[in-house]
Model the fold of this input.
Amino acid sequence: MTTETVTSSLGVLIFSTDNTHLYQCDTTEQFTLVFFGQKVVFRFCELIVFKSKIRKIDLFNLFNTDVPDIELIHLPHCDRFFALSTLQILELRELFSGSFAMMELNSIIQRRIVRKAL
Amino acid sequence: MKDILRRHQVLSEEITDILNKQVKIEAQSSASYLALAAWCDVRGYDNCAAFFFKQSEEERKHQMKIFRYLTDMECNAISPAVAESQYEFGSLREVFEKALEMEISVTDAIHDIVRACRKAGDIATEEFMRWFVQEQIEEEFVARRTLELFDVLGEDKIALGMIEERVLHVEYDGGEEG
Done:
């Protein structure tokens, strides 16, 4: 088994789905979300808030035919709005689920191997 | 790759959510105590009103203690919206019954947090919550004892006067003898 770290000018690629990617920059300690070609930079606390907003969207309500199947999400740190379709929400949830699993795995490695050696 | 998760997220999302929920419970409790104090105050039960004003301040302190813990841990602390409190009661006894019910409800919520901390292996927050567990023992004791004054003294005018006199002196001695 081989492991490969994908890096770019945005930093280390943490996780990808078909249309979304999340990068971590070790220098600035910021994250870049590439979402259907758009780039948004987050500090960690902002990323957590965004993730939480995505998690709290009531998907069943979006399937209700009486309401539009679009959810508006405001990103106050960069003053942008995302109008998210149900599929985009599902893709973001997959991205966050995978990304945070990878970050937790990295945390475990750091705790068990790197910090233990210090 | 830097461990940014550990550097910036000391608490898990689950623990952050449950602590934010507790901030709201404490805020609601503080507001409810104000309603109890107002009921007593306008009916001339000055000491009972003072008792509930003090309780309201205590709950506010609890709320801020958890709120500050969340911000200290670099978590997203949410300033809660508080619903309208019950402000109509049939009797003074009913007011104290409401107070005891609120304290029991807060205790249950605190114990839920401790259980969640144990499940998540969050030793720091469990340790932080220890103070609240002890505090709730005291709060429940005081609420229960004041309510028991009604059983001991009754509810006629003389009894209510005696309750007024005694309510500010009900204290928990921490289980000490003597």
About this structure: Residues 9-79+86-169 of chain B form a domain with the Ferritin fold (CATH 1.20.1260.10). Chain B has one domain: 9-79+86-169. Chain B touches chain A at residues 1-9, 13, 74-76 (CB under 8 Å).
